[in-house]
Design a protein that fits this description.
The chain has two helices and four strands, in the order βαββαβ. The chain has 75 residues and is of the alpha+beta class.
Length: 75
């Protein structure tokens, strides 16, 4: 079984279900991503992947003008 990692990110710019669906689709297309769960109300995405993916790669997948992404640090 492959190792996997999961991280939660804040997603800026999501305002509707269509935005959430677009974010999920774009993040799912990143190499190494195995699952994406988007919570529109919390403006968060939980990304599971085979390895740690740099936030700049995820931002590039989202597009540099529509949505923003930043990792939420565990408290």
């Amino acid at each position: 079984m492959e190792n996997s990692t999961s991280h939660t990110y804040h997603i800026g710019g999501m305002t509707c279900g269509g935005c959430a669906a677009a974010v999920k689709q774009r993040l799912s297309n990143v190499a190494g991503v195995t699952a994406v769960k988007v919570d529109l109300g919390a403006k968060q995405a939980e990304i599971s992947s085979t390895h740690l993916i740099d936030t700049s790669v995820l931002q590039g997948a989202l597009g540099n003008n529509s949505y923003t992404i930043s990792e939420l640090k565990p408290q």
